[in-house]
Design a protein that fits this description.
With about 325 residues, the chain is of the alpha/beta class. The protein has helices spanning about 10-15, 25-30, 50-60, 75-80, 90-95, 110-120, 130-145, 150-170, 200-210, 225-235, 250-255, 265-270, 290-300, and strands spanning about 20, 45, 65-70, 100-105, 125, 175-185, 190-195, 210-215, 225, 235-240, 275. α6 links the parallel β4 (about 100-105) and β5 (about 125). α7 (about 130-145) packs antiparallel against α8. It is globular.
């Protein structure tokens, strides 16, 4: 494989002219993109995605962050940092006031990159919507922030965890699963849901955990399904992932009751609807391994889901 080495001085030069995007690729392709800063690591980072904030903290670069999205609730140190608006609607005046030397963002909101370019603010877009992209982000941010050893450690740790789980689940039956990431929680019974489609990171997690996605269409990535759509899929298991900080103020047992009237669904009749709660469940950052364990325990409770070195999600 041909190696590509990109220096941080080139990255920042490109960013100052506009914005630089590191597309998702294989782990090997991204790992060789060594961002070794020639003029020092950035010390005034503004980070517009909770997953990137968590990644920076886990590699020991939290002290280099000056501002975060208002959706950042973890770790505790991130809550003390100035908030610069939401994930989809950042406050650009607040960002400017922090005098960032680099803004980190995800590719899901391309308008942000264009707006930052207009304001002359350097930005770097990293992809974390695939397992390969997540592993690569440890390496890229480790190099960028002069935390190379920590970045390599976490990338290797994730590779080892994923390999171990794949080895354990390869002989297990692949459970047909509807994975739900959102719905109108005020409606009872459930009338429609936003499900995980094919090709995104949660689809990958489901496969690694020993499941198979009940959604078969490649697009959209997160389809909205009504009751008829769910009946047509008729999954063996339904797993609903519900964040705590920005989700409904209802306990899991109450959320589960909304599914009970849908007896046309096999998962309801066999009592295989599960509601999992926790902010980490819907953030594709370092705690994604905890999400994988939670999914695995729901699908295959008979399997040992203990992994060496996995930190507590909360």
């Amino acid at each position: 494989m041909k190696k590509v080495i990109i220096g941080a001085s080139a990255i920042l030069a490109l960013a100052c002219c506009g914005a630089f995007y590191l597309p998702g690729g294989s782990v090997e392709q991204m790992a060789v993109m060594g961002l070794h800063p020639q003029t020092g690591a950035p010390q005034r980072l503004v980070v517009l995605a909770p997953s990137l904030v968590e990644t920076l903290f886990v590699i020991g670069a939290g002290s280099q962050i000056r501002g975060v999205s208002s959706l950042c609730h973890y770790p505790d140190a991130a809550k003390k940092l100035p908030a610069v608006g939401g994930f989809y609607d950042p406050n650009y005046e607040a960002i400017l006031s922090l005098h960032p030397d680099l803004v980190l963002l995800l590719p899901e909101v391309p308008d942000q990159r264009a707006q930052l370019q207009k304001l002359g603010i350097p930005s770097l877009t990293l992809e974390q919507h695939s397992l390969a992209g997540l592993v690569s982000s440890f390496l890229i941010l480790g190099n960028l922030c002069h935390r190379e050893a920590q970045g390599v450690f976490w990338a290797a740790q994730y590779r080892d965890w994923l390999a171990l789980i794949r080895q354990r689940t390869r002989v297990l039956p692949k459970v047909k699963t509807l994975l739900v990431l959102g719905r109108d929680y005020s409606r009872n019974p459930v009338s429609s849901v936003y499900a995980v489609g094919r090709g995104e990171i949660y689809d990958e997690l489901l496969i690694v955990a020993g499941g198979r996605n009940a959604v078969t269409a490649p697009d959209p990535k997160y389809p909205q399904l009504g009751v008829e759509g769910m009946l047509a899929l008729d999954p063996d298991v339904i797993i609903e992932l519900v964040p705590e900080s920005d989700g409904p103020a209802k306990p899991p047992a109450e959320l589960l009751k909304a599914w009970a009237p849908l007896t046309g669904l096999r998962a309801v009749r066999t009592h295989r609807v599960m509601v999992l709660t926790g902010d980490y469940l819907t953030i594709p950052g370092p705690r994604l391994i905890n999400t994988l364990q939670a999914l695995g325990k729901a699908l295959h409770p008979e399997m040992d889901w203990n992994l060496p070195g996995v930190p507590d999600a909360r």
